[in-house]
Description:
Number of domains: 2
Structural class: alpha+beta
Order of helices and strands: EHEHHEEHEHHEEEEHEEEEHHH
Strand order of the largest sheet: 2-11-8-13-6-5-3-4
CATH topology of the largest domain: Jelly Rolls
Oligomer: single chain
Amino acid sequence: MRARLPDPARIPEAPAGASLEALRESTTPVVIRGLAAGWPAVAASRRGPLDAIVYLRELASDAAPATATIAPPEAGGRIFYDVSMRGFNFRHEQVPAGVALATLARELDNANAPMIYLGATTLDTWFPGFARDNRIDFGDRTPLASIWIGNRTRVPAHHDLPDNLACVVAGRRRFTLFPPEQIGNLYIGPLDVTPAGQPVSLVDPQAPDLERFPRFSEAWAHAQVAELGPGDAVLIPSLWWHAIDALDGFNVLVNYWWRRTPDWMDAPLNALMAGLLAIRQLPAHERAHWKHMFDHYVFDADHTTSAHIPETARGVLAPFDEAGAANLRRLLRQRLER
Length: 338
């Protein structure tokens, strides 16, 4: 049963004059209208999609092929699994960025065009010079910048570990966001077989099947949505689930990822995977004991956790630095290889 749910809340908009330095520390989403309005790339897109394509083509480097995601028209632009859920409804092709742009230009007026999508393409590698004229001042942050180019695409709800500032350059995009605690109502697919590296929600937010996914109505009650045009941006904090629909025949997004923790820290998903291996199938009473253990040493840890141990003897209970993290990583490898 495909259901029409009530209109969700809007993603709050930043007040006029709010500084990016303050906004980037937000732990909830915020739309920043016109943040990139002064970019030459945005000016080109406002003249029309062909002007935007010409602008990008002049900057594109074809020294190395980019990865294009291709799906047949019947996929409806949705990047997803095939019916078996052991594969996907798309294929990857290695093509020069300029060739992909030329193909998108050729298919602009084709209502039955295949989906063509260059996702997570490193900006400085494939479009050197873009950042010189299209800049955002991040102050003391050095984010990873990526560009996303395609026609009408629909990316399922997923989350990213870093904080994310997404800037629309061309076309319109609809962002549908869910708080991290809604994970149980989003019906997340496999952790180890994913369309693009991160686990995704199996629910189509635009046509949810509430017979199959009844708890999604609760997730929808907490959803936040915004439609952004060229020059607009949205801050998506770490671990917020987000589905993104590109609504026009040519769309470009530039996003910036950064973490609030040192680069030497490990990915939390690795700890989750280890937990699946070591804890999930223990008897219930043992899992309960380990929950207390994790609360004590990880989730509720503070200065009192190891205060009774001399500083020189605290080992992995001491605060980490890069050397300490490398040492623990070696210890974990030894334990896992036994």
